[in-house]
Amino acid sequence: LAGPEGEVIAMIFDPHPASVLRPGSEPRRISTFEQRERWLRSAGADRSVRLTPSPELLGIEAEVFIEQLVKDFAPSHIVEGADFHFGQGRRGNVGVLSDLGRRLGFVCHVVPPVEVALTDQHLVPASSTMVRWLVSNGRVRDAAMVLGKPYSIDGVVVRGDRRGRSIGFPTANLRTPCMMPGDGVYAGLATLQNGQQLATAVNVGARPTFGVAVRAIEAHLLNAPFDVDEDGTKRVAGMPEYGWGMTIEFIAWLRDSVAFASLDELLAQIHRDCERAQECVLPTSGNHGKGSTRVQKTGLEAVS
Description:
The protein has about 300 residues and is an alpha+beta fold. It has nine helices and 14 strands.
């Protein structure tokens, strides 16, 4: 629609407007602004504009909101989904937007709803609500089918209780503003802030073997190169011990979290799980883990 001389601008409400309208009840975040900006750029957007919700912004009448948008950006086309609502009380919809377009000089394009067939062949609407439900239930392969790519989270590596490194399986503990998948063990692909990609076995949730009830995301990076500092501290090569960024793509669910009867049982299972996670993430099409995957139900409980 933009043509060779046009500019594609993506408007992003961030955070979710419900954080202002109904604080504490807003939908869980499934992406950061930075993630969406990257994805939109890769899809052809020239730039993204962040709209930060406020009582004043959300209280603007629908017509006034669009008039201001036209004044600021002079759009020739506006593309929206069929369920788009805007303006005070969400009184504006795509019908109102089309009418305003005829008066203000732009064409409104409505993208119809899309349905996706999941692995069980059920057809579901492609929506953020569906993605949240699938991710919360550990169905990351199905979530990827709705999203068109694996569900991923951005985060920062923080200090854990360092138990894993004492038994030979250190984990990177990720702090993230994004929604955590349902409790369990996953095969994933980690992208470090230096661009390096590594298969990873990820534990999400508590660690029942050690009686730890606090939910966390812990990734054991497979075949990661390490540096050892003078004081003996072991860290991922080229990275500080903590404070560096990492993205985890959740490729496959492996199993529920369980408590092991002994440390030996846990260690044996960790070895098996690392092998299975590597198999799931290794590409069969040679493109950094985004080829077809083979999911096998096995177990790993990460220990940080």
